[in-house]
Structure prediction request, 407 residues.
Amino acid sequence: MLRQLLEQRVSCAAIAIVTSLSLAGCSTLPASGPSARAIEEGAVTGAKGPDQPSLQYALVELTGPMLKFLDDPGPGSFHASFGQGRGPAPQIKVGVGDTIQVTIFEAAAGGLFIPNDAGSRAGNFVTIPAQTVDDNGYITVPYAGQIFAKGRSLPQIEGEIVDKLRNRAIEPQAVVALTNQTSSQVTVIGSVGNPQKIAINPAGDRVLDVLSKAGGIVNPGYETFVTLQRGGRKATVYFLNLVQNANENIFLRPSDILYAYQEQRAFTAFGASGSSGQFKFQQERLALSDAVGKAGGLLDDRADPGQVLVYRLESRRALERMGVDLTPFDPRQTMIPTVFKANFRIADSFFVAQRFPMRDKDVIYVTNADQVELFKFLNLVTGVSNAVSSVAGDAVITRNAVRTLRR
Prediction:
């Protein structure tokens, strides 16, 4: 009687476990991530049409025509943050601490600055000793008095000197030159050959010009980022984007700060790939096919080659050009969570993967094949059945032991 009761209870428990697993859709089985079906059902929109998800991300089938819309914006943009990708260089103004030299010319000898015996001299001019712009922004010119120089261009200073001497000198002309420029400097620090302050050329210096004057970058370009701080604003760009995109190589302004630093770009891979973890790019351009290879490829006994997924934040502009419906997202959202799906069961998908550019912090996830999930479930059911048999056997042993004790 005891044996029958125990076997009945254990059998009921086993049936309850199996039934609950079936009702749960195998959600309690071990897995390295969400299934392909769960990802497709969870997408808020995609190239194939909208769904009704609970999480807002877009799902895009990775095909050849999609590639032309993909570009790597990098972590930021100098042009978008500060402008002046093209156009004239900013005009350099005189500032406090600059050293100025003034030369005054007169049309004939016998004037205010040129004596009568100047005929033996080479030229009718006089050079005033160099002087530094004081804290109030002034310099002093004999017979013209104080001249305000701070924040003005050299031609503006020359014009005021001539105006103040016009009625005292003979057809005066003035030439003003900067002999030591301290207020129009930029600071270059970080991973460069010679960190220092550099005076901006009156013709204008761009970011790459100043980095070159500072000895250039010391780390590989594909591991270098450059931050520009101007006043209370700053932006960071990938160095190779700075080289390849002329709009990012903007003109610098006085008091700008450039900071070059090394940061190795990396992606993360997990799921049914040969290896899981973080992998460094270690090269200028890394394609999806190269990234999958770095991660050990796809596991023959686990992976679904039709579900190789890349998670990233993609720009709204690129997705709109692909024809993805973005109405479920906030119009102010410029970067959209996106899952790109590559189907490695198709032969030409490998050519597409060779041209799909990986980005820093991308995530690759390879899903398990459906058969793997089925095998997991069957193994679990087998384990439960074995446990039922074992418990029933233990019940018989326990009953016999009780009978022996009663004798």
